[in-house]
Structure to design on (218 residues):
């Protein structure tokens, strides 16, 4: 079982699919088309990129100069912090897939997830060296740090938009429309989740109060 899981062929395909993320960052139109339609991407590589993105964000809290990021570790919950990354990403993937499926979108759920993860590559490539570099610059050079950090986010957004367009085979305008609709779908899902958990908590509290009352009377 383990031999087949870590076979030479699978390992080589994984490495190639991970390296292909670099191609997607510089050639997003061709890259994201090949990623899904030519099956040059893998879930293993997508999961790796997502893991490295989360790891980069956590390391930024620890190793970025205090001039740029001030962290109060006693108030920080790492699990909550990680959830604040994974939950929006999950809502985006599900929301985008659900909407585009209704309007002739070609991308499957797994393909949307894969393209979203691959689009995060520039964030890692820029923020890792930027994190180190932050410890060698002064407050007068803080503007440079902010600009480079913003470039990373814009780059991620740019190739992400092009990636979704290739995955669903949408025109640029139609793709933008559905990305905006995806944001509203995310807000609706957040509202429904909050409503659901609120009802669950109230139901649990109700039965707990009944149990306490029964124990008191006994």
């Amino acid at each position: 079982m383990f031999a087949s899981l870590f076979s030479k062929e699978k390992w080589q395909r994984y490495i190639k699919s991970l390296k292909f993320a670099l191609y997607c960052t510089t050639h997003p139109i061709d890259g994201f088309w090949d990623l899904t339609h030519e099956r040059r991407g893998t879930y293993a590589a997508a999961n790796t990129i997502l893991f490295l993105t989360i790891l980069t964000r956590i390391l930024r809290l620890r190793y970025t100069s205090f001039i740029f990021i001030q962290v109060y570790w006693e108030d920080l919950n790492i699990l909550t912090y990680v959830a604040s990354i994974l939950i929006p990403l999950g809502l985006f993937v599900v929301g985008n897939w659900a909407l585009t499926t209704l309007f002739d979108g070609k991308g499957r759920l797994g393909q949307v997830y894969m393209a979203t993860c691959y689009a995060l590559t520039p964030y890692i490539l820029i923020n890792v060296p930027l994190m180190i570099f932050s410890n060698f610059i002064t407050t007068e050079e803080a503007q440079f740090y902010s600009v480079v950090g913003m470039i990373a986010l814009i780059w991620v957004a740019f190739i992400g938009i092009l990636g979704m367009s290739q995955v669903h085979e949408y025109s640029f305008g139609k793709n933008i429309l559905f990305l905006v609709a995806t944001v509203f779908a995310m807000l609706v899902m957040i509202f429904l989740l909050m409503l659901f958990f609120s009802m669950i908590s109230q139901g649990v509290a109700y039965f707990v109060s009944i149990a306490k009352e029964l124990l008191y009377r006994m």
